[in-house]
Amino acid sequence: MAQRYFTPALFTFIRDLKANNDREWFHENKQRYEDVVREPAKDFIDAFATPLGKITEHFVADTRSVGGSLFRIHRDTRFSKDKTPYKTHVGIHFRHIASRDNVHAPGMYVHLEPGACFVGAGLWRPATADAYKIREAIADDPGRWKRATRSKAFTDLYTIDGDSLKRPPKGFDPEHPFIEDLKRKDFMASTKITQKLVTSEEFLPEYVKLVKKSAPLMRFLCDAVGVPF
User: Fold this and answer.
1) Fewer beta carbons under 10 A from the terminal one: N or C of the chain?
2) What contacts 177, CB < 8 A, 6 or more positions away?
3) How far, in Å, CA of 107 to CA of 122, rounded?
């Protein structure tokens, strides 16, 4: 039976947190966070584990409070001019089992934010060595990259996005048909989703469908960096 995991109360909490982003307010509203954000997110992560295992055995749906799939609500402000202590979105990351504690590893991502919800898949800002492995894989087998990222089934849902180099990377043909992809710093694809979907019983089954559609891209990237999909 389909189940609803998130309610509009999650987005109300995030909007309130954005307007009151300080430790005193959060302390006073911590139970709200537990009730409408953290516990529903953990339930969603737990429920996704079974369908994820049918798609790939090498990614993890981890319900641990620390180091699990749900990102901490606390911001790392050490190197930021913005010293507000809390994130104003909810992030969930299903990482590769070989590097489950690394945000730069291959993974699937869910971003929940008022007016800006999306689903992502790929590698965000991979290590330099891995970025070059991916570029080499694209250059060596452009046909496979095209099938993974330019098929109608993929482009009807996903857009390749992220930051790019200003110039072609050293050692790669500037005239390569996928030179814009070779210039990428991030190898990510994303698709927007609505708050109505997130707060409905259809969110989990629809998310499973989206993950399945991203599988050719994920397989390509995993193969490129030398981990199993």
Assistant:
1) N
2) 142
3) 6
**Contact status, residue 125 vs residue 104, Cβ threshold 8 Å:** yes
CA-angle at 9, arms to 4 and 10, nearest 5°: 80
Cβ neighbour number for residue 35 with a 10 Å cutoff: 14
How far, in Å, CA of 13 to CA of 95, rounded? 26
Query: String of b and e for 151-174 (b: at least 16 CB within 10 Å)?
Result: eeebeebbebebeeeeebbeebee
152 token code pair: 């109608």
Cα(96)–Cα(69) distance, rounded to whole angstroms? 11
Counts for the chain of helices (H) and strands (E), in that order: 11, 5
b/e 36-47 (16+ beta carbons within 10 angstroms → b): bbeebbbebbeb
pLDDT per position as a tens digit, 124-170: 888 899 999 999 999 999 999 999 999 999 999 999 988 999 999 99
Domain boundaries 8-74+83-225, corresponding CATH code? 3.30.930.20
Q: What are the residue ranges spanned by the domains of the chain?
A: 8-74+83-225
